[in-house]
Amino acid sequence: MDQEIILGCHLSISKGFKAAAEIANSIGANTFQFFTRNPRGGRAKALDPKDIKGLKQIMSENNFGPLSAHGSYTMNLCSNKEDVRDFASRIIIDDMLRLRELPENTVYVFHPGSHVGQGVEEGIEYIIRGLKDAVDVYPEANIALEGMTGKGSEIGFKFEHIKNIIDGVGKGNLGICLDTCHLYSAGYDIVNDLEGVISEIDDTIGKERIMAVHLNDSMTEMGSNKDRHEKLGEGSIGIDALVRFASHPALKGRPINLETPNEIDGYEREIKLVRELIRKSC
Ligand code: FE
Ligand code: FE
Ligand code: ZN
Hints:
The chain is of the alpha/beta class. Helix content is 40%, strand content 14%. α4 links the parallel β4 (107-110) and β5. The longest helix has 18 residues, at 82-99. The protein binds fe (iii) ion (2 copies) and zinc ion.
């Protein structure tokens, strides 16, 4: 039997995890992504065990796949400033402690960071250091480094960067989160050569290390290095390529989340559209 794809969207947990799961379920999603804390600030709310219990119940009753917990944008493990790196290390360790209270298959997704001048190689060394400490706190954690567009001094816009980080850490359960907008902006042609891109992932990182997916169209052209998400079908990637991506066998069982510029009703439309088009293509 063909397993239904695990598709959802980014949701706020300001009213709790159970409330977010209820919204997800009501719009045809069987996963969702949330920020572990305010994306721009530092502090995280304490987890409420009753809320987590309610979350797990909705997930099991409705066959949810793994959730995605997205780390803060301010967390830069590879800054050239020591205090920024220390702050990032404390945040990721705190995120690991919180992740232990969440459903155990939850995937932690974060941006590798920006080296702000000292170069990719040194930046990668700092990321490795920060991740080793995080893995020690929660060795079983699923940690996915998100592939980036390469804007500014971002690290992680080439699969090799992520491979070098995973190899350098040498422990834990590390992988990659594929964001279609980021891949395309970084110059990976998922429109005309999806198979080529997937083989490149397999040859570097290994396709079994694909842990999560962000399904977004892009406002900008391939190779632009810009990070501007667009609604599905309204950007340079297009709905056909996005549906081919979401239904690729290498991604089977992975949580796929929309991060498109939408409110809940727009997410609901896109989730229904993708499910419908995948069904038709089978
Ligand atoms: Fe992200
Ligand atoms: Fe993303
Ligand atoms: Zn993005």
